[in-house]
Amino acid sequence: MAKVLIIYHSQSGNTERLARSVAQGVMNTEDARAVFKRAFDTKTHDIKDCDAMVICSPEYFGYMAGAVKELFDRTYEELKDDAVMYKKPYCVVISAGNDGSGALTHIERICKGYRFKKVQHPIICKGQVTEEALAQCFELGRTIAEGVNAGIF
């Protein structure tokens, strides 16, 4: 059974809506389980125990949310040399007021340091959350879960 960790931070609710849609996509997949966690509540064992992750962050001042960065800072030392982390599948969802590129660049750079493996193109939702963006997030959740179950990721 695929266990997909969806990590998010949200103040306005936009990123949470996108993250919930990812979770629904995972749960809509046979033999898959979504673990839905705020960045501040995510622990090292959550990252170690999942089969894949979707990191959902708003863009603030061209950067990821501080809560997401704090998660990376808090877990890096314990996880950096753990063989379980090598090529752990991940993807990114950004809720952007601007273009989202700065937040995405920094998240991907940090994930490279963890030695995670990006398995899907990021979703960047610019401005208001649309039904199209929610549908993309739903499909992303399904794709990640199915990819884990099939052994592709």
- State the helix count: 5
How many strands?
7
**SSE order:** EHEHEEHEHEEH
Q: In terms of per-residue confidence, which ranges show pLDDT below 50 for 5 or more consecutive residues?
A: none
CATH topology term: Rossmann fold
Give the helix/strand class.
alpha/beta
Give the C-level CATH assignment: Alpha Beta
Domains counted in the coordinates: how many? 1
Quick tags:
Rossmann fold; 153 residues; alpha/beta; 44% helix; globular; 5 helices; seven-stranded mixed β-sheet
Structural description of this entry:
The protein is an alpha/beta fold and 153 residues long. It has one domain: Flavodoxin domain (Rossmann fold). 44% of the residues lie in helices and 25% in strands. The protein contains 5 helices and 7 strands, in the order E-H-E-H-E-E-H-E-H-E-E-H. Strands 1, 2, 3, 4, 5, 6 and 7 form a 7-stranded mixed beta sheet that branches. Helix 1 crosses helix 5. It is globular. The model has no long low-confidence stretch (mean pLDDT 96).
Would you kindly provide a brief summary of this structure?
The protein has helices spanning 14-27, 44-49, 66-79, 101-114, 131-150, and strands at residues 2-8, 32-38, 52-60, 63-64, 89-96, 117-118, 123-126. It is an alpha/beta fold and 153 residues long. Strands 1, 2, 3, 4, 5, 6 and 7 form a seven-stranded mixed sheet that branches.
SSE layout and pairings?
Elements: E1 2-8, H1 14-27, E2 32-38, H2 44-49, E3 52-60, E4 63-64, H3 66-79, E5 89-96, H4 101-114, E6 117-118, E7 123-126, H5 131-150
Parallel strand pairs: 1-2, 1-3, 3-5, 5-6, 5-7
Antiparallel strand pairs: 3-4
